[in-house]
Write a sequence for this structure.
């Protein structure tokens, strides 16, 4: 059940670091072979994996995990197959390592090139989602990184089996199996020590609840890429098409309300509120959504609850939505500046000028025109899977795929030049 | 002397943030006009600037600053002219803002594009180098960012005059003068508050001594790009050309020993030590360099002091160099892994295989073949100037120019698509 049983915490990190040096110069073919072995290995080990998962689910029920958490924790044949598909999509991507970002010949004849290299060792701290174990490991291997996984005690049995499959896959093609390490066995202490492992871990990605992410951002001495909560907005402009407004808001709220790219607040142009809101809110209400509105909204839709100050800043993760009528684009942008977490915002409009202003002036990781905010996703963007969705501006912003797990290095080739 | 006298700390950060929103969408022409006005303004205000600088130098003498610090602090007509030249080189660069990094049309018809955007507000904490005020402000303006500068009390009078020139230049072309702010007036407290200004400052760059950088990395709640110390190595391979080895090592140590890209340690292949070292060390000794050597080196060059364990990990910033004879490339790479700060390393070799192995396996920001380590520099790389040299792997690595002061944003353009 535990791949590496009896191996100390420090030793696992050292193994990951040593393995990362081999991974860094491994060919694309070899890394893809490891991924293919991983996809096949998941299918071959499905019985063992699902048995371990059943144990975690049983423990989860005893520990009274919520239905939502239990659902995230659960694997079945279809979900395992989807993981193998994602791994094969990742294998099919262009190898980011060695790509030239830019380069030039200096006037003195020296050639400089900026090329993509792996980080080295990527750490991940997440909660109760065994699919993240596979997604992050596959993205890390593709990008030539070793990975240290802390997936949380709730999924410990499942993750143990999954990491065993990943290690076997690496070993089967001649890559060091140490490139994938789990530290679930060390509990909370392991997570704390991972955050202190500056010099052994190059970057740490927390993925999960707002409080988990906040803890990692505050406490980690290893550089962190913050993945973030989404207080996501859709602005219905004066010229919004009624059908698009209705369908996009409904899709963005109802298709999967518990995720970060689900919409939390709808802003509506005052001149279009009476035309648009009845249809938009009817479709939401029919799907069981609770409407929280400002005064004008409530004059149009009397069933709406009063939206309080806190509501506008809340990621509900549930079938609740806030609705506010604004004077126009300026007020919409100002509202977004005040309450957005910088994840995703979308405008529904027929006006080219307003679409371009929204794209330029809204300072979020993903800014959309006439599309559902649910598209902010590594899989949808063609990345195969995602490490998470970065809401910070440093290094990576938006869905993170293989490129976001790379750094760069400058190579300089001279013929004896010195500086004058 | 103080541009913004009487304006509170918080108000200055708010002004920078408001100004950053205008800068973010300013055209390349307008930003270049501001830079040209800045270059001209420096020349026009040279008398006032040099008078303020004389005051800082006088205070520095009273406070018994070292000769090195006083030299960094000093401006004269030639140095001012060099700053204007650098500003015009930056103006001549392609505008990074709006550049498309990558993009595609998804199978469902949705168009996604990753485009370069400014960070917003860039903070800089540095020491006693007025040229950094101008370099960072110019790079920030070119990349559409506002900038908050904390240049240290030793250069307070000079920086005050420089920031006034920058603000006037911005205002003269119709850009918000608030986009450049100095907080020198607030002393150490100002630096501390800048590090706490999460949400108002998007990224913080410390530039200066190792202790300054360490303080910022440890204490800042704002994301930091670490610029770093350089324990820089040159490896003389078995096939190294004698003339290149001699000239490159000499240039890398002697041309400017007090900077981070100066070499600290020379590693020599055992089979070439007797051939190479006498010439290499003679030229160094003739320039007043103190040699610290291992046992084998001292058998070849008896004047060498004994290199102690600490020496190998020390950035001397002086005319001292450490020399070690190694068995070959593997031992050289292992030594570099142990002692390098990941800044710059160079190999002198005629062997293509060894050159490529060195480039691939040495994990530093800049890895060179047959060139002086002094080339790791934004100006030399064609960036006009540099924000600093990043030794971290997240976001930026190596000399940081305008591109490194940008983030990205995804724009998504649909025609009513929802996720199924």
């Amino acid at each position: 059940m535990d791949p590496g049983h009896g191996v100390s915490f420090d030793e696992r990190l050292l193994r990951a670091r040593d393995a990362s040096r081999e991974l860094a110069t491994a060919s694309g073919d070899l890394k893809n072979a490891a991924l293919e072995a991983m996809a096949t290995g998941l299918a071959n080990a499905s019985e063992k994996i699902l048995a371990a998962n059943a144990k975690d689910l049983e423990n989860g029920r005893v520990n009274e995990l919520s239905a939502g958490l239990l659902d995230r924790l659960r694997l079945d044949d279809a979900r395992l197959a989807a993981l193998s598909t994602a791994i094969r999509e990742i294998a099919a991507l262009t190898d980011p390592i060695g790509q030239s970002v830019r380069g030039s010949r200096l006037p003195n004849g020296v050639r400089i090139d900026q090329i993509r290299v792996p980080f080295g060792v990527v750490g991940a701290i997440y909660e109760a989602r065994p699919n993240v174990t596979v997604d992050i490991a596959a993205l890390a291997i593709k990008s030539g990184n070793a990975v240290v996984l802390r997936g949380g005690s709730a999924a410990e049995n499942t993750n143990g089996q999954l990491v065993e499959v990943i290690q076997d896959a690496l070993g089967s093609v001649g890559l060091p199996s140490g490139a994938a390490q789990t530290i679930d066995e060390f509990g909370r202490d392991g997570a704390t020590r991972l955050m202190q492992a500056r010099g052994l871990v190059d970057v740490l990605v927390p993925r999960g609840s707002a409080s988990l992410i906040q803890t990692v951002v505050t406490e980690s001495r290893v550089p962190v890429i913050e993945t973030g909560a989404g207080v996501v907005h859709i602005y219905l402009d004066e010229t919004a098409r009624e059908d698009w407004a209705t369908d996009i808001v409904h899709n963005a709220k109802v298709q999967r309300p518990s995720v970060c790219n689900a919409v939390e607040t709808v802003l509506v142009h005052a001149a279009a509120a009476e035309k648009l809101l009845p249809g938009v809110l009817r479709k939401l209400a029919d799907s069981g959504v609770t409407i929280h509105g400002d005064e004008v909204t409530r004059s149009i839709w009397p069933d709406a609850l009063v939206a309080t100050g806190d509501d506008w800043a809340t990621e509900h993760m549930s079938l609740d939505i806030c609705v506010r009528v604004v004077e126009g684009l300026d007020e919409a942008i100002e509202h977004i500046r005040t309450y957005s977490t910088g994840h995703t915002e979308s405008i529904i409009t027929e006006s080219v000028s307003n679409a371009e202003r929204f794209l330029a002036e809204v300072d979020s990781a993903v800014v959309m025109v006439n599309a559902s905010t649910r598209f902010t996703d590594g899989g949808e963007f063609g990345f195969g899977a995602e490490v998470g969705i970065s809401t910070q501006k440093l290094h990576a912003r938006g869905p993170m795929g293989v490129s976001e797990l790379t750094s760069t290095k400058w190579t300089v080739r001279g013929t004896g030049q010195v500086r004058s």
Observations:
- DSSP finds 14 helices and 16 strands in chain A.
- Residues 113 and 411 of chain A are 5 Å apart (CA to CA).
- The two ends of chain A are 62 Å apart (CA to CA).
- Chain A touches chain B through 65 residues (CB under 8 Å).
